[in-house]
Amino acid sequence: MSKTAFIFPGQGAQFVGMGKDICEAIPAAAAIFDRAEAATGLAIKQLCFEGPEDELNRTDIAQPAIFTVSVAMLAALDALWSKGKPQADVLAGLSLGEYTALYAAGAMNFETGVKLVARRGELMQSAALARPSGMVALIGPDEAQATALCEKVAQGQILTPANFNCPGQIVLSGENEACQRAADQAEEFGARGATVLKVAGAFHSEIMADAAEQFAKTLAEVDFAQPTIPVVANVDATEYSSAADIPKKLLAQLTGAVRWQQSMEKLLAGGVDSYYEIGPGKVLTGLMRRIDRKTKVTQVNTLEAVEKLVD
Fold first, then answer.
1. Backbone angles phi, psi at 208, to 5 degrees
2. Contact 235/252 with Cβ under 8 angstroms?
């Protein structure tokens, strides 16, 4: 029996102009942007539609902006789909996108979700500024090789695998000097290439520990509901078993690795053969091509894409 997954992008998918077409054309989507602005006090529409790009790319802005656009896409689908709408059997999201997945599963309402990701982005931005750090993308090595590289070049500094995106693509997080040493010596550990990324800091590493400590207080104030649709968590590639799991796994995700490849492999092994990437960009579609070339992902990222689905 065919199974369907909705998957949601994380930080890095943002671009100036995202969501403008659905906001102008679909009142239900426009209402999501209005609710986001009311909940956060941020000029979400202006930042998404007009930028400036450097401000939209800031962690504290990009996170609530991407969450809002992804939820607005969901609202657009609901508004235009009169019949035959695909129903998700399972949900997943990359890093920030996990919050969108939990929202879509009914674990929290929109206002709670957008406030959470805004606070998360603010704390991650502050942690990054407090301690110079970054990330380096490796092409080629497996987990064992990436871990061995970190152990060799850390030299007492923080350096750890942070994103297992797809076969042959692992991102390390750590202090800037350690990241540069990793890039310089990556070929010795099976890498065909290494690129120091332009990011605010070392996400999904212990450098985010202060952010996690503060974010725990925010999460403690939220009364999460049991997801009505299974959601696969980044940190362990397993489904949330209860509402009580949600704050624990979201906190672990801040300082632990995102296991996206393993999450998608779990879905594939479970018989999921239809995927919808809902939100800005097409990053997850590209990753899936590397995880399983035969699997088709339908992108829901523009008004045109939505209208094609509901014709």
1. -90, 10
2. yes
Catalytic residue, from 70, 133, 173, 204: name it. Answer: 204
H/E stretch holding 253: helix 245-255
Q: Please state, in angstroms and rounded to a whole number, the distance separating the CA atoms of residues 142 and 37.
A: 42
Q: What is the pTM of this model?
A: 0.97
**Tokens standing for residue 121:** 């982005």
For the segment 82-105, what is each residue's pLDDT rounded down to a tens digit?
Answer: 666 788 999 999 999 999 999 999
Of 54, 42, 43, give the one whose Cα is nearest residue 16.
Answer: 54
Alpha-carbon distance of 309 to 294, in angstroms, equals 21
Catalytic residue among 95, 133, 173, 263: 95
- What is the Cα gyration radius of the chain? 19
- The answer to whether 95 is a known catalytic residue is yes
Question: Which H or E run includes 157?
Answer: none
Work out the number of other CB atoms within 10 angstroms of the CB of residue 184. 13
Both tokens of residue 21?
């077409």
Phi, psi (rounded to 5 degrees) for 257: -75, 145
pLDDT tens-digit map of 65-78: 999 999 999 999 99
Partners of residue 275 on adjacent β-strands: 5, 297
Distance (Å, whole) CA 84 – CA 40: 35
Give the CA dihedral 292, 294, 295, 297, nearest 10 degrees: 110
241 belongs to the catalytic site: no
**Region for 245 from its dihedrals, namely left if φ exceeds 0, alpha if ψ lies in -120 to 50, beta otherwise:** alpha
